[in-house]
Amino acid sequence: xxxxxxxxxxxxxxxxxxxxxxxxxxxxxxxxxxxxxxxxxxxxxxxxxxxxxxxxxxxxxxxxxxxxxxxxxxxxxxxxxxxxxxxxxxxxxxxxxxxxxxxxxxxxxxxxxxxxxxxxxxxxxxxxxxxxxxxxxxxxxxxxxxxxxxxxxxxxxxxxxxxxxxxxxxxxxxxxxxxxxxxxxxxxxxxxxxxxxxxxxxxxxxxx
Length: 208
Known about the structure:
With 208 residues, this protein is of the alpha+beta class. Helices cover 55% and strands 17% of the residues. The chain has helices at residues 2-38, 44-68, 71-76, 78-93, 110-130, 170-179, and strands at residues 96-102, 135-141, 147-154, 183-188, 194-201. Strands 1-2-3-5-4 form a five-stranded mixed beta sheet, covered by helices on one side.
């Protein structure tokens, strides 16, 4: 119930960003284009730069809305959504990002899928934004049908988990894991990269 309430709020904010803010920026972009067509030559460069910045803001907004509510998870399921997420991180940050699945993942309920997706999302964000990683890999391991292991490993600068601040989102990952009766292990050290391991027990009869 807690996870679903959090996701419902994220979905609401994502809709507001798309419906209100993005539409306002679209109107600004159209107005700028019309102004540029009639503006004197000495203003051309300034207007072109303003148009570029507006377009960049719109793209960032779309990306933020997608992070808040991953439509790929609803539309295509967990594996395709994770594969898309990893690919987008690689393209956006220019790092070698890879995804692999070892074995067929067992059926997971909606809450469990959200936990996996959000933990991977946070770990990828840490690798790209904070650790300055050059490579990051996401692996799903499902061999015995009783549990799902999710591993996110990067070659970034690493950190001391015992003294890490709130900015890395570790507490949020742990709270999500706890709500799903899963375990979360973060292994890292300065200069040694980071591995995040989520182990999720599979409930018999869980819906896909």
